[in-house]
Design brief:
Chain lengths: 754, 294
């Protein structure tokens, strides 16, 4: 059997658009999401949440609530084991188990309005709700901090007074939870040799991932200690690992069954409810179901960090970037762990700088703990750097795409975050944007066009997959990653391609934690890339076995057997009739038993993705309203296994970024209470707000993947904010450096109220 | 909580007066159900108004229009004579929510929910709509601008309900329009709404004008000073500028998560002017009521 990277000529499925295996279930409403599970005798649980942004909990009295008819169990922070400080890696944002445990149920202190204090399980949700009102919490209210600037002032109240560094050593008291620095060269000295230097500061607001499905789970702890959890998340193994850790259980005792997921975007890479549901089930002896309300999702689950970023770039008259330096402050929320490191890594990543440095700080404030959100940390950084690049292009009178091409990162270039680039497709993506008819389509009065670029690493991490040959010659694939963006289809297509059989003959199932090897979360745009690689690897092992079985039947040397088009053949002897998959499978009992293989690995060879977006806006000069009227997104996908799902990812990322740019923002009152915990006042774009997002796929194959895949889910949210802001700059002449570009802000800048 | 769907006005008024403050009339329920869910209202009895003949249907006659208070936005949008006569009222009604909401939302509910930002209300005030109110004390006619007292509060007394809205057949040269500002295109609450109705003489002079604003005060307001900027004048740029300035001056909005005070005041003027411009275009080429618009 030959190991090869398949090329276009031999491909039957890759690059086509078959119907996804989960499509019918989803459009007919039959697919089961997190809240769709039930067990006999099930209880409902609700969470009591802090009304204060910062307070010490003197005492919690649950006696009256426990006495209420129908209440079966209550847990508070005292009921969870103390957890030592230890780094947990959630795939996209760093966190610490001790802090995770405190976020799941407050100990001693609450850190934000909405922080969980107690959970009650009762026979109905109405009883559970009523019981919450009977819990008496005695608070000592503490002064709070709500933004990064006040949080680092010398006299700021401390969100934590017992922070430890990564080695577990206690740190000096401060709201700066972590600092990162990276880069190369000596930007400070190099700025002196630049003809132009632009130095500007930008702010962005906290925004929510806005998944349609609120967090939900059902947990059942048996009298034997076995625990089963049904829930919607970005990773059943992540839920198992964190829940077991937080409750002190063995992993082998916990089984997590993944539901379909109604959106996660990074926000479902951690636990909120599952440890509570399990603890309540252990105490009550009954299954416990929990479903967050939308308001709880907003108040208590992770938004993307608010940020303040200063960027300084120096360039020569000819347009060569000489040096770049950036200072990034990201709000972590009430627990450490913002995406500032990734922001600092991506900020200069698209460009070849001789001198580049970024300084990032993770800052504690009394707001919900931030969580990963699609290319965590990168969109805000891109807003800052791509706005400055746009200004440089204006100042230098160079076409903004030419300026980017002139400085574009490419193979061999030293990246600002460390490694040298392998083969990447940034130049090709820029060229495609420049050649597209959108780029020089005419504009009318009050309209403007913006261009911006962005990069995301994509992740490999750990993946496993199992491939089994069924007796009828069909193939079953088990993946351990929840299918968020169409990965069942992509995995089936790669398997069909490997076996040389019809796509319909491959069935892909998402296994629970007991039915497939370990997988890291569905995050980092990694599933088609990494789990796909494992499916290909397992398929090739199975094909090797199929060849051996055929060799046995024919009694020929296995070296002479080749697999092609779903059949084993002996190319050097045409008297031997090829054996099809079904024939080998049916006879497997006589040639050595069932045929199957699994593959696991820490997948290396990720391919970085670059995206370039073109955005046209029209600005109403009298109301300040910005309408996006045309939008084209270009992206190097490496290879689009299923182009529709690549386009879907590109469109979705663009829309989320546009929302972030225009109207989405958390609005807090002075006491730290979120004023817009719902989709009416947290203004995500609705379908009628936007034009069709045109997606243009560029394919510069990732040499380290059997089908050239890079991963596509995150890069498309990186360029939209600056693409919109640069378009608004073009339409109005005003450079906006603070988000969101809401009508009042825009009008005020266009025509300051007297 | 109990639910009743009476088939007559008498029965409805009877139920409402029996149960008193704990009873709540319900039309489309698009405000009420949300309030039940969030716990802002906890009525003991819901009195569904949609089975009562007097609150359903639209009558168009030579005297004008009678629109049942429980008629849905979708039905109103499909009533061609009404569209033609009062396009501003219809466009305001159609802005409420989405296709799904349009299938339920009523004018009675939009008015009696008493939100300062209700979309149909400024358009109805500008058009001079009058509603019929019936309660234990009998029947009265109330101009729309007198129904809302403040956020969530009406001037209706206990067990009184709005039965219908009346609009005249517009006189020759009449045009009306409604404009609203939201940061999105739908599923949002007006930051400012402006309704204008006016009538032009053959000479092009403005004979009559009514201006109403939403979301810029504790309740939808009629702004006579803005209307007077046009009345007895040619509606030229200067007059429209004056109308805008008066509308901005009359606005007394709050600062909140949805918009700042300064922004709302400024945009009130802009939208009042734009609504007037649209109303002028509609009034311009004289139309005979009932005939298709050209
Ligand atoms: C998703 C969504 C989007 C929305 N978008 C908009 C929008 O864009 N613009 C807008 O203005 N509104 C909007 N709304 C609010 C709501 O849809 C409107 O106010 C609608 O017109 C209410 O009508 P209803 O028949 O559903 O009222 P209901 O909910 O039935 O009643 C509302 C209130 O009025 C009372 N009431 C109803 N009928 C009568 C009557 N005949 N006499 C006395 N009292 C009565 C009820 O007791 C209740 O207090 C939206 C609501 C939702 C859920």
């Amino acid at each position: 059997m030959t190991q090869k990277t398949r090329d276009d000529q031999t491909l039957k499925w890759v690059g086509t658009r078959p119907i996804r295996p989960d499509g019918v279930e989803k459009v007919t409403g039959r697919a089961r999401y997190g809240a769709d599970f039930a067990r006999p005798d099930m209880l409902w649980a609700k969470v009591l949440r802090s009304p204060h942004a910062h307070a010490r909990i003197r005492s919690i009295d649950v006696r009256e609530a426990l006495a209420l008819d129908g209440v079966k169990a209550i847990v508070t922070g005292d009921d969870l084991p103390e957890i030592a400080s230890e780094q947990a890696f959630v795939g996209e944002e760093p966190t610490d188990y001790r802090m995770m445990s405190q976020n799941v149920l407050a100990r001693g202190k609450v850190g934000y309005v909405g922080h969980a204090i107690a959970a009650v399980a009762a026979t109905t949700s109405a009883v559970a709700e009523e019981a919450l009102g009977l819990i008496e919490v005695d608070y000592e209210i503490l002064p709070h901090v709500l933004d990064a600037v006040s949080a680092i002032a010398p006299d700021a109240p401390l969100v934590h007074d017992d922070l430890c560094d990564r080695k577990g050593e206690k740190k000096a008291p401060s709201n700066i939870a972590n600092e990162v620095e990276m880069g190369h060269g000596d930007p400070e000295a190099a700025f002196a040799s630049a003809d132009f230097v632009i130095d500007r500061s930008f702010t962005t607001q906290a925004v929510h991932q806005g998944y349609i499905e609120p967090h939900a789970c059902l947990a059942e702890a048996g009298p034997d200690g076995q625990v089963t959890i049904w829930c919607s998340s970005q990773g059943q193994f992540m839920i198992r690992g964190y829940t077991a850790k937080l409750l002190g259980l063995d992993l082998a005792q916990v089984r997590v069954v993944p539901a379909e997921i109604g959106g996660g975007f990074g926000g479902k890479t951690t636990v909120y409810l599952e440890p509570l549901a399990v603890a309540l089930s252990q105490r009550s002896g009954r299954p416990v179901k929990m479903v967050m309300s939308r308001e709880e999702v907003f108040r208590a689950t992770g938004p993307a960090s608010a940020s303040r970023i200063r960027v300084k770039i120096g360039a020569t008259r000819a347009g060569n970037f000489v040096a770049g330096e950036a200072w990034l402050d990201y709000e972590a929320g009430a627990f450490p762990g913002s995406s500032v490191a990734a922001g600092s890594m991506t900020i200069f990543a698209p460009y070849a700088f001789e001198h580049a440095r970024s300084h990032g700080r993770d800052i504690l404030v009394n707001k919900p703990k931030s969580a990963a959100y699609r290319a965590p940390g990168a969109p805000m950084a891109a807003f800052a750097v791509e706005s400055v690049v746009d200004d440089l292009a204006r100042q230098l009178e160079i076409d903004p795409i030419d300026l980017r091409l002139q400085n574009a990162a490419q193979e061999g270039v030293q990246s600002s975050f460390g490694p040298r680039y392998k083969r990447i497709g940034f130049v090709e993506t820029l060229e495609a944007a420049q050649a597209h008819p959108h780029y020089d389509a005419p504009l009318k009065a009050n309209q403007g066009r913006g261009v911006a670029a962005g990069m995301w690493f994509n992740a490999g991490l750990q993946s496993s997959a199992a491939v089994m040959v069924n007796a009828d010659g069909s193939i079953s694939v088990i993946s351990g990653n929840p299918d968020i963006g169409g990965s069942r289809a992509s995995l089936a297509m790669m398997a069909a391609e490997e076996f040389g059989i019809a796509y319909e003959k491959v069935g892909v199932r998402i296994g629970d934690t007991a039915s497939v090897g370990y997988n890291d979360v569905t995050g980092g745009s990694r599933v088609t890339l990494a789990t796909g690689k494992m499916v290909v690897e397992a398929s090739r092992q199975v094909i090797a076995q199929l060849c051996e079985r055929a060799a046995k039947v024919w009694d020929v040397d296995v070296e002479r057997v080749q697999w092609a088009d779903g059949k084993a053949t002996v190319p050097d002897d045409d008297t031997i009739k090829p054996l099809g998959l079904a024939e080998i499978a049916t006879g497997a009992g006589r040639t050595g038993g069932p045929i199957q293989a699994s593959a696991s690995g820490s997948v290396r060879g990720v391919g970085m993705s670059f995206a370039v977006h073109l955005c046209d806006v029209e600005v109403d000069p009298e109301t300040g309203k910005v309408d996006v009227i045309r939008y084209t997104a270009f992206q190097d996908a490496g290879r689009a296994i299923h182009p529709s799902y690549v386009e879907g990812q590109i469109q979705g990322g663009a829309v989320q970024g546009i929302g972030w740019a225009l109207n989405e923002a958390y609005v807090f009152d002075e006491s730290g209470r979120l004023e817009n915990p719902g989709f009416l006042d947290y203004r995500m774009p609705v379908a009628s707000d936007l034009p069709m997002i045109d997606a243009v796929i560029i394919e510069v194959a990732n040499p380290d993947h059997p089908y050239g895949v890079r991963g596509v889910g995150e890069a498309p949210i990186v360029p939209p904010i600056p693409a919109v802001a640069n378009a608004v700059r073009a339409a109005t002449g005003v450079r906006f450096s603070d988000l969101p570009l809401s009508p009042p802000r825009v009008l005020d800048a266009l025509d300051p109220a007297s | 909580m109990e639910y009743a769907a009476p088939r007559s006005l008498d029965e409805a008024i009877g139920l409402l007066s029996q149960v008193g403050v704990d009873a709540r009339p319900m039309a489309g329920g698009t405000d009420l159900l949300v309030q039940l869910r969030t716990g802002t209202r906890r009525p003991k009895l819901l009195v569904d108004l949609k089975q009562i003949p007097g609150l359903c249907g639209i009558d168009c006659g030579s005297q004008g229009f009678r629109i049942g208070a429980a008629v849905s936005g979708a039905e109103i949008g499909e009533c061609l004579p009404l569209r033609e006569a009062w396009p501003g009222v219809v466009e305001a009604t159609e802005l409420i929510g989405s296709t799904q909401i349009q299938g339920r939302a009523s004018l009675g509910g939009n008015l009696c929910n008493a939100s300062p930002a209700a979309d149909s209300v400024p358009a109805l005030i500008a058009a001079g709509a009058v509603c019929t109110v019936i309660g234990p004390g009998g029947r009265r006619e109330v101009p729309v601008e007198e129904v809302v007292r403040g956020p969530g509060e009406t001037t209706l007394s206990e067990a009184e309900i709005v039965v219908d809205f009346r609009l005249p057949q517009p006189q020759e040269g009449t045009g009306d329009a409604y404009q609203r500002m939201i940061p999105r295109t739908e599923m949002d609450i007006a930051i400012v709404g402006a309704g204008v109705s006016l009538r032009l003489a053959e000479s092009g002079e403005c004979l009559a004008c009514r201006v109403a604003l939403g979301a810029v005060a504790a309740r939808p307001i009629r702004v006579d000073a803005a209307a007077e900027a046009l009345i007895d004048r040619r509606p030229d740029a200067a007059a429209l500028g004056e109308l805008a300035a008066q509308a901005s001056a009359a606005a007394d909005p709050i600062d909140d998560k949805r918009g700042t005070r300064a922004y709302r005041s400024r945009v009130a003027g802009v939208l009042a002017r734009r609504a007037a411009e649209m109303a002028l275009r509609r009034a311009g080429p004289r139309r005979v009521a009932g005939s298709p618009a050209s």
